[in-house]
Amino acid sequence: MLQQKSWKQYDQTLHKELISYLYLHSVRKYMILKYLENCRLQKGIYMNNTSETSLQFHKITTRKEAEDFVYASYLRAASHQDYAAKDARKRHPELTRSLLWQKSVTPCIVVTGSKGKGSVSNMISRILQTRFSVGLMTSPHITDFRERFRVNNTMISESDFCRLMTEIQPEILNIASDLPESVCISPMGIQADLILFHPYDRHTDFNVLECGKGAKYDDVNNVRHNYAVINRIFLEHTRELGDTLTAIAEDKSHVITGEQKCVYFAEQEQEVLNVLVRRAEAMQVPYKIYGRDFQAENIRYTCSGMLFDVVIGQTVYPDLQIPLLGEHQAKNCALALALCVDVMADLCRESNAPDIFSDTMCHQIRRQLSAIHHPGRMEILSSDPFILLDACIHSASCENVKEVLRHLGISNCTVIVGIPEDKDYAGVVQSMKDVAARIILTRSDNPHYHFSPKQQESLAEEGIGTIWTDSVKQALTLTGACPDPIVILGTTSVISEVERIFRQS
């Protein structure tokens, strides 16, 4: 019923193109191959260079092959690009704009911001699942690439991952065929293509997609979205987005395209809020602001997470509980709930349904929120010894970590930091030194990140003593004989390695 209704919301001008797309993906394997053969004849998309076999059509049979295809175009172009260049110079969302726009059949919600995008996206998905089927795309992953693609909180199966990646290959290769080697299709664009197809395959009512670094030059923003969320913005990814808060806010504000019924702003610095409001008003999109239209109140810690009230307008949702740590997570939940209340209310009005927020529905929402699990986000791996794990790579996020430690009565920690040279490793160490008995620097085995003992030398020049280790395993080994609480902060690649080590132990 909802799916049929949603069809009517889209422009009739797209009808023929949409039907063509749906037909393409309803054919059997031999039809896909026939389509590819035509592409080959017309545009020469088959490449003879054996070093680029990942940019040839092939039936994908393993998870590794599927992952490789996501990054194939990017890796081909990487050696020709200026790594330090702004996104405006090196990213090309226009390549997937038409494709993703046409495939946005199911109503979508897009989430951007500097931090907490994944948490908010997960919360939105959980709340909407009380009544609807929901697709979800987040990034990055912790241990398995498939974590990025979920339907009703269930990770995509390996067989579906391979099958669907095989099926979207023709349209991706068709775009790639005309590109010079210095230009690539963004991995985020390919992932967005997959998440639009996977939920359609599973008949979802809504899709929730997390943007990458920004919005203006992010392929995810090509997805036609009915609602948008902008979480907290601070100085992060300055190389790609700009070196001022207003520049970063300007980039992320482009998640407001003019198509939205409403956009929701988290708590922001005033200069950031000014940029976002200006964009919303220019695009004539209604907006709601944390602290004015909704907020979390009466926030308190429990033995298993956070307990708080959410106030939306004149309505109070008391004693909501989430198994996540930090006041920022309560604020994230208020942001997610404010959007979901409006989404559900809109659907009730459109379908003349009874009030969706019955006692039963509120109970289901509470149950969904209490079941949220977000690995690597203020995650307590062990209570004895105490080990806290967080994907923190910026000094601003350290305040959340320290707030949690204060409430738990934890101090004099061994702090393990695994942050690349081009991120804010120095800011994180500076912020954490007042709660650290010692600081251990480490590196991940991800070849795309650059770690170096020079980080230790640079910190020493500022009078901060640290220990350098060549692997996460070595860093953890150094903590073995020490009774101090352990706090591990770093990129998702570092977090992933920690998770794997603990699963194996």
In short:
This protein is of the alpha/beta class and 505 residues long.
What report would you give on this structure?
With 505 residues, this protein is of the alpha/beta class. The chain has 2 domains: 41-370, Mur-like, catalytic domain (UDP-N-acetylmuramoyl-L-alanine:D-glutamate ligase, 3-Layer(aba) Sandwich); 379-504, Alpha-Beta Complex (Protein-Tyrosine Phosphatase, Chain A), CATH 3.90.190. It is 43% helix and 17% strand. The chain is built from 19 helices and 17 strands. The chain has helices spanning 2-7, 15-24, 29-43, 63-78, 87-90, 94-103, 117-128, 158-176, 187-201, 238-241, 245-252, 270-282, 327-351, 359-370, 395-408, 425-432, 454-461, 472-478, 492-504, and strands spanning 108-112, 134-137, 149-151, 154-155, 206-210, 227-230, 262-265, 287-289, 294-302, 305-312, 315-322, 379-383, 386-390, 413-418, 436-441, 467-468, 486-490. The strands form 3 sheets. Strands 4-3-2-5-1-6-7-8 form an 8-stranded mixed sheet, sandwiched between helices. A 6-stranded mixed sheet has the order 12-13-17-14-15-16, sandwiched between helices. A 3-stranded antiparallel sheet has the order 9-10-11. Helix 17 links the parallel strand 15 (436-441) and strand 16 (467-468). Helix 7 (117-128) packs across helix 13.
How many β-strand stretches?
17
End-to-end CA span? 49 Å
Number of helices: 19
By helix and strand content, what is the structural category? Answer: alpha/beta
Beta-strand content bin? 15-25%
* Quaternary form: single chain
Lateral strand order in the biggest sheet:
4-3-2-5-1-6-7-8
Low-confidence stretches: 1-53
Q: Major beta sheet, specifics?
A: 8 strands, mixed
Shape: globular
**How many structurally independent domains?**
2
Task: Report the C-alpha radius of gyration, rounded.
Answer: 23 Å
CATH topology-level fold name of the largest domain = UDP-N-acetylmuramoyl-L-alanine:D-glutamate ligase
CATH superfamily of the largest domain: Mur-like, catalytic domain
Tell me the helix content: 40-55%
Top-tier CATH class of the largest domain:
Alpha Beta
Mean pLDDT: 85
Can you name the CATH architecture of the largest domain? 3-Layer(aba) Sandwich
